[in-house]
Design goal:
The protein is built from 12 helices and 4 strands; from the N terminus they run E-H-H-H-H-H-H-H-H-H-H-H-H-E-E-E. It is an alpha+beta fold. It is globular. Bound molecules: iron/sulfur cluster.
Length: 259
């Protein structure tokens, strides 16, 4: 099977620019945004799983105060670590943090892996968290897709539903790859997370305040901006009609400077 995704280049440039400008003006001041230490970023990502940022913030600060390096975490008693993280719920995360520290100390000395593949192999870090550590800790581009980001992409591009099939997951990964800028990926990724958490929420999206409102296909309709070409057939993302096999709609192709 051959497949590639074609994106309207004006949409891509506007999506990146509006999101990044909005983030720089409205970003939330979260403690893990004051570090570029990949270990600290990994701690924040594990603590943030299924938990609101406001609840995580004080635990994160106490965690990195007690265990400022991954060796400190490796030496800490497991029960002590879990006692700190268990009040956030999702009790497995204390074990994941200890397992991550053990794997890093055993296989990488005192530093987190510098490659995305190495991060993905660490216990506790799924594909999203590994990409987040790579982006925000290692300073390397890695397209991000978690639940909030998937919702923003789905609505803005006009995918027919927020599904969880392998096909949906693959299309979202292709969208993230196509839309993530080559340079301003830090602010872009943080902006996606803030937008999904505060504006483009699951139940009550605040479209009038959204920086993407003029280009969001879910809000405005408009011609498709994403077309998948699979084995000679074209499938356009359209919110109302679903994927149209053989759609004649084609995104504009004008080149735009990468962000
Ligand atoms: S305009 Fe509304 S639906 Fe579209 S991305 Fe913004 S908040 Fe979400």
């Amino acid at each position: 099977m051959t497949s590639h995704l074609e994106i309207d280049q004006r949409f891509r440039a506007a999506f990146q620019d509006r999101l990044i400008r909005w983030y720089r003006a409205h970003r939330r001041d979260l403690p893990w945004r004051h570090t570029a230490d990949p270990y600290h970023v990994a701690v924040s990502e594990l603590l943030l799983q299924q938990t609101q940022a406001s609840r995580v913030a004080p635990v994160y600060l106490e965690f990195v105060r007690r265990y400022p390096t991954i060796e400190d975490l490796h030496r800490a008693p497991a029960a002590e670590v879990s006692a700190l993280t268990d009040p956030l719920g999702y009790h497995i995360r204390g074990k994941w943090l200890k397992a991550m520290a053990a794997a890093v100390v055993a296989d990488h000395g005192s530093g987190m892996p510098e490659s995305l593949e190495g991060l993905r192999r660490l216990p506790g870090l799924g594909p999203y968290a590994a990409a987040a550590v790579h982006t925000f800790g290692n300073g390397k581009r890695a397209p991000l897709v978690d639940t909030n980001i998937a919702r923003v992409y789905t609505r803005a591009v006009g995918l027919p539903a927020e599904g969880s099939t392998y096909r949906d997951t693959r299309r979202l990964a292709e969208l993230a790859e196509a839309l993530t800028p080559a340079r301003r990926f830090y602010d872009y990724g943080q902006g996606l997370m803030d937008l999904g958490a505060t504006i483009c929420t699951a139940r009550a999206p605040d479209c009038p305040r959204c920086p993407l409102r003029r280009l969001c296909r879910d809000l405005t309709g408009g011609p498709p901006v994403a077309v998948w070409h699979v084995d000679g057939a074209s499938m356009a993302a359209e919110r109302t009609a679903g994927y149209r096999v053989g759609s004649r709609a084609t995104p504009r192709r004008e080149a735009s400077p990468d962000a």
